Amino acid sequence: TYSHNGETVMVAPMGGFYSDPELGKKQIRMAYVLNEDDLRRSVELLHNALLQYNSVD
User: Fold this and answer.
1) Res 9: pLDDT
2) Residue-range domain boundaries for the chain
3) Which of 32, 39, 44, 52 has the fewest CB atoms found within 10 Å of its own CB?
4) C-beta separation of 13 from 24 below 8 A
5) At 18, is the secondary structure helix, strand, or coil?
């Protein structure tokens, strides 16, 4: 879970969706159950989360 200014975005690892978990090792699952504006915001939040994750030593 990632949170920024009270907003969150959650994803699920894809390994559990394959008979061989290695196939989904570098993939995530997002549920697209939001309206278009919220979906766009969730992508922005995910982008920010990845920037933060990649900056951690």
Assistant:
1) 84
2) 2-55
3) 32
4) yes
5) coil
3-22 exposure pattern, b = at least 16 Cβ within 10 A, e = fewer: eeeeeebeeeeeeeeeeeee
- pTM of the full structure: 0.68
Distance between CA 27 and CA 45 in Å, rounded? 17
Contact 15, 24 (CB under 8 A): yes
* Cβ partners under 8 Å of residue 14, min gap 6: 23, 24, 25, 27, 28, 29
Q: Which residue has the tokens 């159950």?
A: 33
pLDDT tens digits along 1-57: 678 899 988 888 999 999 998 999 999 888 777 788 988 998 899 999 999 889 986
User: Closest Cα to residue 40, out of 7, 15, 1?
Assistant: 7
